[in-house]
Specification:
By secondary structure, the protein is mostly helical. The chain is built from 26 helices and four strands. The strands form two sheets. A two-stranded antiparallel sheet has the order 1-2. A hairpin with a 2-residue loop joins strand 3 (about 385-390) and strand 4. Helix 11 (about 325-350) packs antiparallel against helix 12 (about 355-385). It is a multi-pass membrane protein.
Length: about 800
């Protein structure tokens, strides 16, 4: 076996140090963004070239516009967006907190009742010769880790939203000096969120492990079983954030587009549109806060899945702390790699032209992947023994350190493949989106047909990439290999989040430019930033969905082991009924979220129409719309409509586990994983393609695009209809599905001890009933025979 090169003390220093470096770097980026002042005096000073040099002239000065009024308007709009987003999140968090408390109580009661709330030590699950801490301890610490994960997830989402609303107007103002300045501001703001989330997630998990270790001591099996609650807390909050935020943003977006663009023929983000503030608020609560919580949940769950398997492998058995914390060391290396990668975008190279934006973002993915591959090799060499054993469904499998390196690396590169395929199918620089745009010539129907076909086709390569990574990583290191492959895909989460958050910030910047009445040249720059942002957002969703598939499978393996299921046989009726029901769940969930967006959008459309029809001078620009009513419609609808989909996901494992047992639940998890991944990729890419097809026509950057435009033409209206159909697909149903498959798996793992002990009530009573019926039939027959014999004897 052997020992690792890196001593345990160095591991205990390096992990928190990397997290602190990540937090410090995010604060540095924030301070650089904050230098862009939202005050007319400072902006004018910068614009005159006193501080920024002759190249920093302002377009407003060139065109004779009033710089003072522009800056004041930008500040006012930013405040309105920030206040709306903060108000919504506080309202959402009130309801979510109630759920958090109730579910924490359920975890304690269910897990504590496994051994009748006993305080006595019990034989360990995987080694009956040893004694572990009582089930009551697992219940208490699982509850605490659940609350830790939930609170960290909420804070991640909230911080992301505050950063985005802080940066949107500043990006707009920087666009006056050039597309490069605006790009750096938007990207640095995204980096603040990315590094804060990655570092906080790592630091909180590390602190929780060390605090729990004070009680658990050498019982690492119990310690890391309790830690799984951290992933459950993170994903459960992410579900409500994604669904609630998605319903909010798409209700406003669809309402604003259908009435504003199609019916009234006014530009996107026009201040005359009553839903425009709600639309911009939605970008922050859905695409930023929801996405931040989502990727934090993925990180927490992949770490927990790897730690659970490692705790019952040689790392846990031999108390090898460095080997045990290998997943956290990978994440620590990821923060350092992403820090270096970010400097390439903000300091080493400068974006000088609109055409350089998308390649610049693509380089971030390539550079981070290449550097991270080297980083993984270093960590695997110094942190792992030359050989060790990994738990593999009841037996210990011998694994070499280079094999584990390949497991992490293949997950990392599979993520890059998924990212590039997503870019190909959603960027208007390539033929698939251009074909969708061209189909708008003949109306909305052909646009919808082409978009759906594109989405279905875009599933093929990502699924093969996921399949190959699963096969290779499982062959090398069983379920632990799959868990660290998922961690590899998420190892560059800081860069991924920076790229992902960049999109909504740029979108908001464009909206602020339009509402503030800024030059059309500035809007062209922000539109170019936004178009690249749509593609990067789709890439981010691809990463999230791909990693969710791997995480869910790793959690599934841990659940099967913890529930003592020997084999998952699909020919068994118990498993097969679970499989087919599980495959149905993503459709049911998608139907609920899509209908919720449709219902909320219907109310929004009616309200926007009412205001255009009843407020004199609104269309002419002489009267102000009632923004607050539209914000209230989106808020009320999202809070009300997020509960049923959330209940479906959270209650399904509990109901199936309690009433039908662990075998049926294993079928449900497998079915939802296989079905959910396909639908999620298809929905996200279809929506992204429709959105960029619309922007392709609006930009008119090529001869082909100009033949389809301009804005307001019939092909453009058809593209807008496709875009509105795709909005709930790419921003509500699609992204939420990856949370569904992860959350059900981690919830099943947390409750596995209870399900294994007390689950399957219906089947137990069913067999008892069958036995009773059989017994009654036997007794009846016996009675008849006795009576006949007596009669014959007489």
């Amino acid at each position: 076996m052997g020992y690792s090169i890196l001593p345990d003390l160095a591991t205990e220093i390096l992990v928190p140090l990397a997290a602190v470096v990540g937090i410090a770097f995010s604060l540095l980026q924030w301070s650089l963004v904050s230098k862009v002042k939202l005050s007319p005096e400072k902006s004018s000073e910068e614009g005159s070239g006193k501080n920024g040099g002759p190249s920093d002239y302002l377009i407003e000065e060139e065109e004779g516009l009033n710089d003072h009024n522009v800056v004041v308007k930008c500040a006012e709009i930013q405040n309105a967006i920030s206040e709306g987003a903060t108000s919504f999140l506080f309202t959402e968090y009130k309801y979510v907190t109630i759920f958090m408390v109730i579910f924490a109580a359920l975890i304690f009661v269910f897990l504590g009742s496994v051994e009748g709330f006993s305080t006595k030590s019990q034989p360990c699950t995987y080694n009956k010769d040893k004694y572990c801490k009582p089930a009551l301890a697992t219940a208490i610490f699982s509850t605490v880790s659940f609350l830790l994960g939930a609170v960290t997830s909420l804070i991640s989402g909230f911080l992301g939203m505050k950063i985005a609303t802080f940066a949107n107007a500043r990006t707009t103002l920087e666009a006056r000096k050039g597309v490069g300045k605006a790009f750096i501001t938007a990207f640095r703001s995204g980096a603040v969120m990315g590094f804060l989330l990655a570092a906080n997630g790592l630091l909180v998990l590390y602190i929780a492990i060390n605090l729990f270790k004070i009680y658990y001591g050498d019982d690492w099996e119990g310690l890391f079983e309790a830690i799984t609650g951290y992933g459950l807390g993170g994903s459960s909050m992410a579900l409500f954030g994604r669904v609630g935020g998605g319903i909010y943003t798409k209700a406003a977006d669809v309402g604003a587009d259908l009435v504003g663009k199609v019916e009234r023929n006014i530009p996107e983000d026009d201040p005359r549109n009553p839903a425009v503030i709600a639309d911009n608020v939605g970008d922050n609560v859905g695409d930023i806060a929801g996405m931040g919580s989502d990727l934090f949940g993925s990180y927490a769950e992949s770490s927990c899945a790897a730690l659970v398997v490692a705790s019952i492998s040689s790392f846990g058995i031999n108390h090898d702390l460095t080997g045990m914390l290998y997943p956290l060391l990978i994440s620590s290396m990821g923060i350092i790699v992403c820090l270096i990668t970010t400097l390439f975008a903000t300091d080493f190279f400068e974006i000088k032209d609109v055409k350089e934006i998308e390649p610049g973002l693509k380089k971030q993915l390539i550079i981070s992947t290449v550097l991270m591959t080297i980083g993984i090799a270093i960590v695997s060499w110094i942190a792992l023994p030359s050989s060790f054993t990994i738990f593999n469904f009841g037996v210990q499998k011998t694994v070499k350190n280079w094999e584990l390196f390949f497991c992490v690396a293949i997950g990392l590169w599979a993520g890059l493949v998924i990212g590039f395929v997503t870019e190909y199918y959603t960027s208007n620089a390539y033929s698939p989106v251009q074909d969708v745009a061209d189909s708008c010539r003949t109306g909305a129907a052909t646009n919808v047909i082409f978009g759906l076909a594109l989405g279905y086709k875009s599933v093929i390569i990502p699924i093969f990439a996921i399949a190959v990574s699963i096969f290779v990583s499982f062959s090398f290191a069983a379920m632990y290999g799959i868990a660290v492959a998922a961690l590899g895909m998420l190892s560059t989460i800081a860069t991924g989040l920076a790229i992902d958050a960049y999109g909504p910030i740029s979108d908001n910047a464009g909206g602020i430019a339009e509402m503030a009445g800024m030059s059309h040249r500035i809007r062209e720059r922000t539109d170019a930033l936004d178009a690249a942002g749509n593609t990067t957002a789709a890439i981010g969703k691809g990463f999230a969905i791909g990693s969710a598939a791997l995480v869910s499978l790793a959690l599934f393996g841990a659940f099967v082991s913890r529930a003592a299921i020997s084999t998952v046989d699909v020919l068994t009726p118990k498993v097969f009924i679970g499989l087919i029901v599980g495959a149905m769940l993503p459709y049911w969930f998608s139907a609920m979220t899509m209908k919720s967006v449709g219902s909320a959008a219907l109310k929004m459309v009616e309200e926007v129409r009412r205001q255009f029809n009843t407020i004199p001078g609104l269309l002419e620009g002489t009267a102000k719309p009632d923004y607050a009513t539209c914000v209230k419609i989106s808020t009320d609808a999202s809070i009300k409509e997020m509960i049923p989909p959330g209940a479906l996901v959270m209650l399904t494992p509990l109901i199936v586990g309690i009433f039908f047992g662990v075998e049926t639940l294993s079928g449900v998890l497998a079915g939802s994983l296989v079905s959910g991944v396909q639908i999620a990729i298809s929905a996200s890419n279809t929506g992204g393609a429709w959105d960029n097809a619309k922007k392709y026509i609006e930009a008119g950057a090529s001869e082909h695009a100009r033949t389809l435009g301009p804005k307001g033409s019939d092909p453009h209206k058809a593209a807008v209809i496709g875009d509105t159909i795709g909005d709930p697909l790419k921003d509500t149903s699609g992204p939420s599905l990856n949370i569904l498959i992860k959350l059900m798996a981690v919830e099943s793992l947390v409750f596995a001890p209870f399900f294994a002990t007390h689950g399957g009530i219906l089947f137990k009573y069913f067999y008892i009933l069958i036995y009773m019926i059989s017994s009654v039939k036997f007794l009846s027959c016996l009675t008849v025979v006795v009576v006949i014999n007596i009669a014959v004897a007489r």
